[in-house]
Design a protein that fits this description.
401 residues, alpha+beta, globular, disordered N terminus, Prepilin peptidase
Length: 401
């Protein structure tokens, strides 16, 4: 084992030593930064609620500038938009329409505040240079967790930006990619972060591609012809649903790739209420192709239904959003952090499936568990990894790492 764990500050980062020196000269004890960290985290959490609500809907986080009630759309004045306080003061209800405001808004603010405090408590005494990148990581993981849990998507705009921040963090504090290497120069830190990104991204991408080959299609066959239809969303947050027999499948579960196509063997087809040629119907994300070769753009279709005998539905073993997320985690924590986060995420997912009986019969979002695995690594999981390598060392295995 090394004389110093990589979490212990040795300087050598890109301007990291200078920032640490400035912080050390301030007339404040490290614990005195915890209250500002909590307040900042709560404020960031308030903004994350905007991100979580708007980004999946394709809305700008800048326009409209003010937050608004998701029910009545009334703008929320600044004095009623105080993090944590406003939700408690208004008892979780909109001041205008009195509709309930989900506890999630309060929970996101509190969770982000607590994570910011934990980062400041653990890492500020080690290196001030790494605190801001890790705060950004916490904000990204909170956003991704709640977006994926609700919409089963992970916006790549968040993970790509996070990967850049992760590499910058490795330059500021080269000890960040723990146990990926013991060099303490900024270039070494970025190198290990880059290796971590590659291992996370391409490793999980390979798993996704193999899963697509093995489990990429789901065949539905019926003893008797059954009704099918495309059901329009009831509100802005719901997707289109493909309904056949008793199965209801959201649009985003079917079309993960541009080449994905849904094939339905039909005995009846109606487009906008008009009967058309039945037979093999091919449905793509942007349109349909009838048995006679006629095509219709999806935006021109107001209603689509009929009767079918079977269907072949494309599916993914895992979404590409998880691939980008694990790459981002690797950019912060190196390849060892990737392996630990993936293993821990699998355990968390199995535990959640058993306890909550989720994932049985419907897709289980994996992003939240990857986020939990990354947080577990940062707040102590690396010690388990170090212990494991130390355990393997005497038998001649750990030394090879």
């Amino acid at each position: 084992m090394p004389d110093h764990y990589p979490w212990q500050s040795h300087g050598g980062g890109l301007n990291g030593g200078t920032l640490d020196a400035v912080i050390s000269q301030l007339p404040f004890a490290p614990w005195s930064w915890l209250v500002p960290a909590f307040v900042l985290g709560a404020c960031i959490g308030s903004f994350l609620n905007v991100v979580i609500y708007r980004v999946p809907l394709g809305m700008s986080v800048n326009e409209p500038k003010r937050s608004f009630c998701p029910i009545c759309k009334a703008a929320i004045p600044m004095w009623l938009n105080l993090p944590l306080v406003s939700w408690l003061w208004l008892r979780g209800k909109c001041r205008q329409c009195h509709a309930p405001i989900a506890f999630r808004y309060f929970g996101v603010e509190l969770l982000t505040a607590l994570l910011f405090v934990a980062v400041a408590w653990i890492f500020l005494p080690q290196s001030a240079a790494v605190v801001i990148p890790l705060w950004i990581l916490m904000a990204l993981l909170v956003s991704i967790t709640f977006i994926d849990a609700e919409h089963l998507i992970i916006p790549t705009s968040l993970t790509w930006g996070g990967s850049v921040v992760g590499l910058a963090g490795c330059a500021l504090w080269p000890q960040l990619p723990v146990l990926a290497g013991y060099g303490y120069e900024w270039l070494s830190g970025m190198k290990q972060g880059g290796i971590g990104w590659a291992v996370g991204f391409f490793g999980l991408w390979g798993v996704v591609e193999l899963g697509k080959l093995a489990f990429g299609k789901k065949a539905l066959k019926f003893d008797k012809p059954v009704a099918w239809s495309l059901r329009e969303p009831e509100n802005d947050t719901d997707p289109i649903y493909f309904v056949i027999g008793e199965d209801e499948i959201p649009w985003w579960d079917i079309f993960s790739r541009k080449e994905d196509k849904l094939i339905v063997d039909t005995t009846e087809v109606r487009v906008n209420g008009v009967a058309v040629v039945a037979g093999k119907l091919v449905i793509r994300e942007t349109g349909i192709e009838l048995a006679d070769g006629t095509t219709h753009a999806l935006e021109d279709i107001k209603a689509l239904d009929g009767v079918a005998t079977n269907a072949v539905i494309p599916r993914e073993a895992m979404g590409m959003g998880d691939v980008h997320l694990l790459g981002m985690i690797g950019a912060f924590f190196g390849w060892s952090g990737v392996l630990f986060s993936l293993f821990a995420a699998s355990l968390f997912a199995i535990f959640a499936a058993i306890i909550g009986r989720i994932g049985f019969g419907r897709q289980l979002p994996f992003g939240p568990f990857l986020a939990m695995g990354a947080v577990a690594w940062m707040f102590g999981g690396w010690r388990l990894w170090a212990w494991y390598l130390d355990f393997l060392g005497p038998i001649g295995i750990g030394s090879n790492f």
